[in-house]
Design brief:
It is a single chain. The protein is α+β, with helices and mostly antiparallel strands. It has two domains: about 1-60 and about 110-150, no CATH class; about 65-110. It contains six helices and six strands. Strands 3-2-5-6 form a four-stranded antiparallel sheet. Strand 2 and strand 3 form a beta hairpin. Helix 3 packs antiparallel against helix 4 (about 85-105).
Length: about 160
């Protein structure tokens, strides 16, 4: 299932709230939040609500659509126009980019892939606190296994509620 903008923002809010709690209890790990997916359409990027950053760093977390493809094309053409110093074409392309982006950011339009995970990466790898964290009852037990260095808060779909 895919998520619309409101559901996505709610999932990120829940992920950030949980991270805040966990950082208090496991400060030695210096947890850093990321979006991630392994397997088909894998990728990752920092936890952000900036649409263009996600599009650039982890486009597979966004649902495939004509608008997404068009936005990616426009961003390349805008970059080319800047390189060629073609101001008129750049302005026209930026106007078109804003229109496409407006459609993709519509609160009711399903834009985000629900199977993308919010994960907390330890910047200081300390195994004993990491093992305790992976067993913390606030995290989904089926997704976090001892011996792995991943700490998964859940999928966007799970965290939206």
């Amino acid at each position: 299932m895919n998520l619309n903008r409101e559901q996505f923002l709610k999932a990120v809010e829940h992920g950030q709230a949980l991270l805040k709690e966990l950082k208090k209890d496991y400060p030695e790990l210096s947890l850093k939040p990321v979006f991630s997916r392994f397997g088909p359409h894998s990728g990752q990027c920092d936890l952000t609500t900036e649409f263009l950053k996600m599009l650039k760093e982890f486009p597979a977390m966004l649902v495939e659509s004509e608008d997404k493809t068009r936005l990616q094309q426009l961003r390349r053409k805008i970059k080319e126009a800047k390189t060629e110093n073609n101001k008129d074409n750049g302005i026209r392309l930026q106007r078109e980019e804003r229109e496409v982006l407006k459609k993709l950011l519509d609160p009711d339009f399903p834009t985000y892939c629900g199977d993308v995970m919010i994960e907390y990466r330890p910047e200081n790898l300390k195994y004993e606190p990491l093992r305790r964290l992976q067993q913390d009852s606030r995290l989904p037990s089926g997704l976090n296994t001892i011996g792995n260095i991943r700490v998964i808060a859940g999928s966007l779909l799970d965290l939206k509620d």
